[in-house]
Amino acid sequence: MSNQEQKPDTCGCCEGVKALTPVQIKNLPGLSALAYRVGTHASFKITMQSALSGQPRLRKLTTRDDDDPAIALCDAWATVLDVLSFYQERIANEGYLRTATERRSILEMARSIGYELRPGVAAGTYLAFTLETAKGSPTTAKIGVGTKAQSVPAQDESAQVFETVEEIEARVERNALQPRHKMPQEISLGTTKLYLKGTNTGLQPGDTILLVGDTRDHDPFSERWDFRILQTVVPNAQRNHTLVTWKEALGHYTSKYQKDKDRKKPKPTVEPADNPRIYAFRQRAALFGHNAPDWRVMSDEIKESYEPDYKKDKRKWQWPDFEAKEDRRIYLDAAYPKILEDSWIVLMKPGYAELYKAVNVATESRTDFTLNSKTTLIDTDTGLHLNWFPRRDTVVFAQSEQLDLAERPLSIPVFGNRIILGQAVEGLEQGHTLIVSGKRLRYLRVAERTRVIRVDWKEITREEKLLLDPADDSESVTLMTGDLLEVVGAPVLTSEGLIMWHLRDKDGISGFVTAEPDDFIPEPAPEKHDMVDRPELTTEDEQIVSEVVKLDRTEKVGDFTRLVFTSQLQNAYQRDSVTINGNIARATHGETKKEVLGSGDGSQTFQKLELKQKPLTYTSAATSSGTKSTLEVRVNDLLWEEVSTLNGVPPEKRVYITRIADDGKVTVQFGDGINGARLPTGVENIVATYRVGTSLDGMLKAGQISTLMTRPLGVREVSNPLPSTGADNPEKLDRARRNAPLTVLTFDRIVSLSDFEDFANAFAGIGKAQATIMWDGEQPLVHITVAGADGGPIAPTSDLYWNLIDGIDAARHPDHRVKVDSYKRLTFNVKAKVRVDGSYIVEDVLALVKAALKNAFSFEKRWFGQAVTPSEVLAVMQRVQGVIAVDLEELGGKDPFEEEHFRLPADIDQLLTINPDGIVLTEMTI
Length: 926
Hints:
Blueprint: H1 3-6, H2 41-52, H3 69-94, H4 103-112, E1 124-131, E2 140-143, E3 148-151, E4 161-164, E5 168-171, E6 182-183, E7 193-197, E8 208-212, H5 214-218, E9 225-236, E10 241-246, E11 257-260, E12 263-266, E13 277-286, H6 300-306, E14 329-331, E15 344-349, E16 352-368, E17 371-380, E18 395-403, E19 408-409, E20 418-420, E21 433-439, E22 443-446, E23 450-455, E24 458-463, E25 466-470, E26 477-479, E27 484-493, E28 499-504, E29 510-515, E30 520-523, E31 544-557, E32 560-565, E33 579-581, E34 584-589, E35 591-598, E36 608-610, E37 618-620, E38 627-629, E39 632-635, E40 638-642, E41 655-660, E42 666-670, E43 686-692, E44 705-708, E45 715-719, H7 733-739, H8 742-746, H9 753-762, E46 766-776, E47 779-788, H10 799-811, E48 818-822, E49 824-836, H11 842-856, H12 870-878, E50 883-891, E51 910-923
Parallel strand pairs: 40-41, 47-48, 49-51
Antiparallel strand pairs: 1-34, 1-45, 2-5, 3-4, 3-44, 4-34, 6-19, 7-10, 8-9, 8-13, 9-10, 11-12, 13-18, 14-17, 15-16, 15-18, 16-17, 20-32, 21-31, 21-33, 22-27, 22-30, 23-24, 25-26, 25-29, 27-28, 28-29, 31-32, 35-43, 36-42, 37-38, 39-40, 39-43, 41-42, 46-47, 49-50
């Protein structure tokens, strides 16, 4: 048998040919795209070729060459089928929310369940107005709704307009209120320092001062006075005062003992002077005769001339002192013309001093003790204890000069929920908005904490230690004088008047310290930073930060006003840097436009008109969507209402709907007389007022808004002490896929825990949200952690924050307890060596690696509480083309391979992202 007889298909026309279509379609759940094609060009062509062999009339068509007309016809139809199946698959994908790629598809599917793609939301901020202070300028100004201010654009930015949304009355005295910087000094037991007016006091360390008051003025026997030797004298030209300090605290014991049964004890401590006056002594002198020859070497003849009975007197070795106890005279060793009547004199011998007032002062010549010289005779107001002072050992302090007391500067930081102003302010009412600005208190140094204890006339100085109680309940850390600590959080004032600080020491131990107000000294940022986790100083240490507070009430404190806020300040501020602006108005992004939309035509149904400018501004609001349109449409001067749909609206109701196109154009559509009222016929009778401007373009830095476009009379300037917040771009497809189903899942009602999370995630301006159950005692609490659409925190004073809370409150069950907090953003650094394939450009590969790291560990790709491991960092870097090997040297400042299972953790309210400026990549050369 021939080969042809054995193999009838030796022509090859049917070899390897079989039907391949239709392809069986099978889609697994959760895919982002549907497979819906029943075939491709190749499979369609092969299937048609296999069908040729099954047709009896075409058995003689044995060729399968592409240039044959019949085969070419099959090829053409295979192409047609390929195109049809491709578009059929695209159409099928557009029919499902998860797989649709066209915005119009998602838009229409969302509308079918009553959901509209979010149009974006405008940023909001607070504008601080400063009034003109020049003479003759008005002291008040009315700042109305719609007052415009414009930003100064940075590089590659455009100027943005903000308008006020509330009316306020601004006053000159509220431009920059300041906290009280000084207060009267309290001079009491234990005082060791005083502030004196001026810097030219003439005092130096070692000089003496006297504190004496009204009691001693009227009673020569009063012990209520204090005499001290100065240890330090520190002038402060900036504050125009001089600080003087001494060692021994004010207050002393009397010189007498009283009998108490069988033992002696000192009398109670004598209080310092009441209403004290401060005197400096400008002259030191000695008693006349202090330099007389030694009595013991004198001849008997001379001794007898001064003391006839000296042989009988037991005091044979000294010159006679004061003649009698009643004697009130003092003779000084020279003439001192500047010692005046009614001035103070202090006599001091080792271990004892006494105060006298000069009743009469005269200059006399005196011959005594073998000496002859001019002397100053002082008659004192009392002779008490004058005979206690020996001529040789006594030092006389005279020529007293009164010094003026200054007010004590307040160094305690500004914190808590109340501030005493340095002036009296009227007209501030409950609910008034204020902005507190200043430098944050960053560091504290432990002050010297000594307490002087007297036991049986002996002074014992004891240094009392401060304890840092770690937050993890580990053993307390003893703080020593001079220790530097970093302020972690705002302090709290206890009911006992103490301050509870949240601090961190140089070893990184964080905890709490409860101390007296003067136990810490505020410190500027040190020149060489030694605090843990802060290897370098940043400009943050010198930046002015601001926060918004609401006034609860004002209180009168003497001649000053105390402001009491509804909440605690979030920061502790350096007192001398704090200013409070009371001329505050809320403002949002966007500029108001007014235009004629067109003319109504009563013969048309569902008449449509288009806004001429875009994008239409939507502001944050306490609605289920989180937005509210600024569009206001009036027909024949009558206001019409915007609704979400015209379906089912009564025919007489004046309503309209809006639709936003892909390019941002807004179309306004009216009813047909059955579903909503038709437009009445008229000429240019439809007028729209709206604002233009939205999205993240309005997210500006603090201080960037500074140009007044509307200048009310008396207003000099404007600024935004806080950055603008709460903005969001128009909703993207991925977010719409996630948010659209929420409409039918919750029906604007919050029941389950996932409902809380879904509601917050769908709220305009919120980028991420997470809801968890926490326990407050024995009651559950729904805790929602949120982040802004731009990845920033959400300030608890922002409109977005309160609108979200109000929206949740309106939709939740009243028994649910809810707390909303902004997330905490953490960043980490990466240091690595990368070996690059020699055929690639090293710089380009390293740039791609850095870009891959930024993308993989960005805000959009990470979630709350998600840790970072070395393996995932290495995986991201290794996937970049051109990378051969990676040596990960540091992750988060640590060697990732020093310990097993190393990871950078994040708490449930934290989101850990990479620091774009902390990626250090170098080429591996070995």
